From TrEMBL:
The protein, known as: ATP-binding cassette domain-containing protein
TM helices/strands, residue ranges: none
Keywords linked to the UniProt accession: Amino-acid transport, ATP-binding, Cell membrane, Membrane, Nucleotide-binding, Translocase, Transport
Residue ranges constituting the ABC transporter domain according to the UniProt record: 2-241
UniProt function note: Part of the ABC transporter FtsEX involved in cellular division. Has ATPase activity.
UniProt key word Protein biosynthesis: no
Any GO BP: amino acid transport
InterPro entries with a match to the protein in the record: AAA+_ATPase, ABC_transporter-like_ATP-bd, ABC_transporter-like_CS, MetN_ABC, MetN_ABC_transporter-like, P-loop_NTPase
SUPFAM superfamilies assigned to the protein according to its UniProt record, in alphabetical order: P-loop containing nucleoside triphosphate hydrolases (SSF52540)
Biological source species: Cellulomonas shaoxiangyii
Family: Belongs to the ABC transporter superfamily.
């Protein structure tokens, strides 16, 4: 559905060229919700602008729904953009229009006749749960309701792809969950492909099937959510299921392991640790829902027998542990929960 190949974008600047995207390859299949995360300056916005054709890449290609955007005329680009809906952090509705008229706006621009427009707007507002507020004005809506209108408007031209740029950053926790629930529901009902740019790990955990971590315009890690999270010690694993806060006395080499509970049962992971005897202590154990599966993480201390014995035992149980801690060059376990990938 979306294919980025050797995508490179270099901006000229007074201090010399800035490489925003550096040979990026990425494929997102139809009906998938794909998250893009990365620190500020990693290239996320540039990626979105190249995806929508607002920015021409320096080299490489962008293909969306079978159309290669590079080298298209302005008119062809406009047509291609109609196949993409955009949802932003701030919705930007026209205050003087009712929400129905706001949703109708892209249909007017596309020249859809009035009767068809009316039917489609009613359908779209029902889809986002706002059928009963068609005559309201933006000022009468909550932030979450405005974002629903934004989503309905983005879906008006029946796009194949929905691009969401920090869609919930301005919303509270409960409203965020509702909006993300709506996005998943739309994907299920419409089969639409969704790309979500976010700096919030909770958004990725809640809505994404797959995730890509960008750094300096390059893909550092990418894959299905449970796969990247169970790659113990990998950057996305740490960002999405953060290492817990530990007391200062635990600041030494520890063994960390992350697993999908349908691959290894938590009781088997615990049994493997227990078999090591009294010396070994579980410092933290969590099991969290993730992408429709459950992911467990254990942090184990072995002050006397050392980490090698623990690693060997866990490997024998089918787990994939890593040694973490300051000496191992991993994250400082005492640094606390690292909420955020930016
Ligand atoms: N128009 C421009 N001219 C020059 N440099 C630019 C331009 N747009 C972006 N850049 C640079 O390209 C790099 C990537 O920027 P980009 O905005 O894509 O990052 P980002 O991941 O979206 O960051 P943020 O999360 O802060 O929005 C940065 O170094 C930025 O300074």
């Amino acid at each position: 559905m979306i294919e980025l190949s050797a995508l490179r974008k270099v901006y000229p600047s007074a201090d010399g060229p800035v490489v925003a995207l550096d040979g990026l390859d990425l494929t997102v299949g139809r009906g998938v919700v794909h998250g893009i995360v990365g620190r500020s300056g990693a290239g996320k916005s540039t990626l979105i602008r190249c995806l929508t054709g607002l920015e021409q890449p320096t080299s490489g290609t962008v293909t969306v729904d079978g159309t290669t955007l590079t080298g298209l005329s302005e008119k062809q680009l406009r047509a291609a953009r109609r196949r993409m809906g955009m949802v932003f952090q701030h919705v930007n509705l026209l205050d003087s229009r009712t929400i129905a008229a706001n949703v109708a706006f892209p249909l007017e621009v596309a020249g859809v006749p009035r009767e068809r427009r009316r039917a489609r707007v009613a359908e779209l507002l029902d889809l986002v749960g706002l059928g009963h507020r068609a005559g309201a004005y933006p000022a009468q809506l909550s932030g979450g309701q405005k974002q629903r209108v934004g989503i309905a408007r983005a879906l008006a031209t029946e796009p194949a792809v929905l691009l969401c740029d920090e869609p919930t950053s301005a919303l509270d926790g409960e409203t965020t969950r509702q909006i993300l629930g709506l996005v998943r529901d739309l994907r299920d009902r419409l089969g639409i492909t969704v790309v979500v740019i976010t700096h919030e790990p909770s958004v990725v955990r809640e809505v994404c099937d797959e995730v890509t971590l960008l750094e300096h315009g390059r893909v550092v890690q990418s894959g299905p959510l449970t796969e990247v999270v169970t790659a113990t010690g990998s950057p996305l694993s740490r960002a999405l299921v953060p290492v817990p806060d530990l007391p200062p006395e635990a600041r030494r080499d520890l063994v960390e392991v992350t697993y999908a509970t349908d691959d290894v049962a938590t009781r088997d992971a615990f049994a493997a640790v227990a078999a090591l005897g009294d010396d070994v202590e579980v410092l933290s154990a969590t099991v969290e829902p993730l992408a429709g599966r459950r992911v467990g993480r254990l942090l184990v201390d072995a002050p006397r027998s050392g980490t090698d014995a623990v690693v060997a035992r866990l490997r024998a149980a089918g787990l994939d542990p890593v040694v973490t801690g300051r000496e191992a060059g991993g994250p400082d376990p005492a640094a606390g929960r690292r909420e955020g990938v930016t």
